[in-house]
Design a protein that fits this description.
By secondary structure, the protein is α/β, with parallel strands linked by helices. The protein is built from five helices and 15 strands. Strand 14 and strand 15 form a beta hairpin. Helix 2 crosses helix 3, helix 2 packs antiparallel against helix 4 and helix 3 crosses helix 4. The protein is globular and about 50 Å long. It starts with a helix and ends with a strand.
């Protein structure tokens, strides 16, 4: 009983933050929430009302800590300063994963409904652009080569990245690509393929 009361009180700031989000930020965030719902809660329907959206948002923030990082990325993408009072309060009450780094917008552009993260500890994501429905797992590094931040990967839609992968350089990962665990990708990968190894090579087409 006390736990339920605590959870309800703890969720009140989330409700307030969500309700007063700017429409542009909210529309993008709803796409991210829907992607998580399809994967984590496929048999539950949260669509159709503000109440359901608030319920899903609080559930994702409380149960999926990596979603806190995504939320902070989205509000900064919408033009809100990381030092804004709302963000400071959010980080204090709902700490994001410290070992997950998402390069801020506009240096990295993540499409709405673009990213779902599985246990993303010790994970750095510094891509130039990420498409829709991209899955990234823990211990993965995606980044630039040298000091030039423009030398970063572009990742297409429906890309599935295995644990401990490294994707670096000014390369393009096509859509519908599966990258095996522990792969090191330093060259372009075309659409519709499975790649693995160090250095990564195409195993088969799908």
């Amino acid at each position: 009983m006390l736990r339920k009361i605590f959870n309800s009180i703890h969720s009140i700031p989330l409700m307030i933050i969500f309700i007063f989000l700017h429409k542009n930020i909210l529309n993008v965030l709803l796409c991210d929430m829907e992607l998580y719902r399809k994967v984590s809660y496929p048999n539950e329907n949260y669509k159709g009302s503000l109440q359901n959206n608030v319920k899903l948002f609080t559930r994702l923030v409380n149960r999926h800590r990596e979603f806190r990082n995504i939320f902070i990325y989205r509000v900064m993408q919408g033009g809100i300063s990381p030092f804004d009072f709302r963000i400071v309060v959010f980080k204090f009450l709902y700490p994001p994963i410290k070992t997950l780094f998402l390069t801020p917008y506009p240096r990295m552009d993540i499409s709405p409904g673009g990213l779902i993260l599985y246990h993303p500890f010790s994970t750095i994501i510094n891509a130039k652009k990420i498409g829709k429905n991209v899955i990234i797992r823990n211990n993965t590094t995606i980044g630039n080569t040298g000091e030039n931040l423009d030398n970063s990967p572009i990742i297409g839609d429906n890309v599935n990245v295995g644990v401990g992968s490294i994707i670096v350089g000014k390369i393009v990962i096509g859509s519908n690509v599966i990258i095996g665990a522990g792969s090191v990708v330093v060259k372009d990968l075309p659409n519709n393929c499975v790649a693995a190894g160090n250095p990564a090579r195409i195993i088969r087409y799908i």
